[in-house]
Amino acid sequence: MKRFLRKYGAFAKGSFEVAVMYRVHILLWVFGDFFSLGLTILLWVAIYANSPTEMIRGFTLIQMIFYNLIIHLTGSITYMSPLSDVAEDYYDGRISMSLIKPASYAIQLFFRNLGNNLFSNLFITLPTFLLIAAVSLATHQTESLAWLSFPVFLFSSLLGLFINYFANFIFSNLVFYTDATFGMFQLNQAIVRIFSGALIPLNFFPGWLRSLAGFLPYAGVQYIPAMILLGRTTGNDLLSAIGVQVLWVVFLGVAAQLVWSHSLSRMKVMGG
Amino acid sequence: MKRYFKIYRVFFAQYLKQLIQYRVDFSIGILSFLLIQFSGILFVGLIFESIDSLNGWSLDQMVFLYGFFQIPRGIDHLFTDNIWLIPSKIRRGDIDRYLVRPINPLFQCVAERFQPEAFGELIIGSILIAWTSMRMGLSFGFTEIALTVVLLCCGSMIYTSIKLLGATTGFWIMNSMPLMTFVYGIADFAKYPTVIFPRFIQLLVTVVFPFAFVSFYPASYLLGMSDPWFVVLGSVVASSIFSVVAYRFWKFGLASYNSAGS
């Protein structure tokens, strides 16, 4: 175990150091990220100002603001984007260098992403968390959030991180079959945005879309943990929600292994 | 001028060959654009199940605006997508190639790539405009159509200029891509009626980065909610100022360009 961590920890350290090196680049990206969060919140303020009722689909304005803040938080805690690494490695042939290392590519990739994830936790998760705490103190809306469930929320987010990694990893294998890179990346982002609850709470969806979301793993990445911290999933529901996440982790983990060994058997590497 | 058309044709043919090579990437690109558009409309549609209008804008009008938003963006995307690559070209010293040829460097850069993925935006935008116009019983005469063409040209120029301004900062900072993405992202406000946002946002998208002239003002003019003279004049002034400033800035940046060696 110690050897394992030493071996793969180097990949996480490497990508974290790259992120630190490009800090101006990444800070601007963080800034843009908060900016679009601001846009979403302003949009909701306008929507509630036009609503005849104080509550829309079970959310008051302040609860909707919390929803968006927490979705932002879970998005950053579970941030894993192997698709861009795979696309880059494959595109310029560097993947052959990674494959000949005495370390599994899938695990290397996980740790490389963990380095980036750490950076995202420092610069997005932490400020978002402080923002949530500040808003909840300033509006005296402490009861909108289930602070007692915070440890469960963190555990659920951690499961979300694994679901996100495996789902994106499986998706990124499509690069080997289609030779498409940038289009793939955008497609993945669009799907995740709709079905993870980042676009709008999933209970706004009409029935058919809601059931489609149930067949996809993405709700387990952001929506399930967010609803736990909002105190909307409690008791038996809480147990079954976590259970669903665990099942997805196991299922996607096995599927990722199968997909990867198939890709490996038919991968062509050009250049490098 | 004629020479430039001829050169553009040559570049275009070259690009088509590349495109055929990556046709799967291309079709997936289109698919993802469709999905992104779907999610935008889905959001508006779901919101309007709970409200009847947003500061006086009905669902049809919102979707009309959303459709109109796509068109100048699509035109900009179709022709000048290569500007996005300027920061990395500066970093790698690839600007050298443009400088040694006796053709305008910016023209070479723009002509190098034609982005047919943009047809996704143009087609979706046109469908949404046509569909909502029909639903609202709108009909446009010659004046409206002529002014719309002018407004669309100005709107695309605003996009391209702001993108070029962002890209040019790459002559001084290592990677200006995130800055470009951020500034270009301000345009997202223009998908919605500017009037629903607080005053400082309205100022931001009207005066500082005039994205409101790309979609909100033209759409509200066509919907009969805004004075045409203000819209046309504002659009022409904003796009002229921005294209002159952006081009000057680009020339200035180019003058201080140092190659990357090797």
Characterise the protein shown here:
The complex is a heterodimer of chains A (272) and B (262). Chain A has 272 residues and is an all-alpha fold. Helix content of chain A is 75%, strand content 0%. Chain A has one domain. In chain A, helix 7 packs antiparallel against helix 11. Chain A is globular and about 60 Å long. Chain A starts with a helix and ends in a 6-residue tail after the last helix. Chain B is mainly α and 262 residues long. Chain B is built from twelve helices and no strands. The model of chain B has no long low-confidence stretch (mean pLDDT 89). Classes of the chains: A mainly alpha (272), B mainly alpha (262). At the A-B interface, helix 2 and helix 9 of A face helix 2 and helix 9 of B.
Give the terminus-to-terminus CA distance of chain B.
34 Å
User: Largest interface, and how many residues on either side?
Assistant: A-B, 41 and 44 residues
What pattern of helices and strands is seen along the backbone of chain A?
A: HHHHHHHHHHHH
Q: Note poorly predicted spans of chain B.
A: none
Counting structural domains of chain B, the number is: 1
Give the biggest sheet of chain A: none
* Residue share in β-strands of chain A: under 5%
Structural domain count of chain A: 1
**What portion of residues of chain B is helical?**
over 70%
Q: Which whole number gives the mean pLDDT of chain A?
A: 89
**SSE topology string of chain B:** HHHHHHHHHHHH
Class derived from helix and strand content of chain A: mainly alpha
- List unreliable stretches of 5+ residues of chain A: none
* Oligomer class: heterodimer
Shape of chain B: globular
Number of helices of chain B: 12
Summarize the structure.
The complex is a heterodimer of chains A (272) and B (262). With 272 residues, chain A is mainly α.
List the helices and strands and how they pair.
The complex is a heterodimer of chains A (272) and B (262).
Chain A: H1 2-21, H2 23-49, H3 61-77, H4 82-91, H5 95-99, H6 105-138, H7 150-172, H8 174-178, H9 182-195, H10 207-215, H11 223-229, H12 235-266
Chain B: H1 2-21, H2 23-47, H3 59-80, H4 86-92, H5 95-99, H6 105-111, H7 118-136, H8 142-168, H9 177-185, H10 199-208, H11 216-222, H12 228-255
Helix pairs in contact in B: 2-3, 2-7, 3-7, 3-8, 3-11, 8-9, 8-12
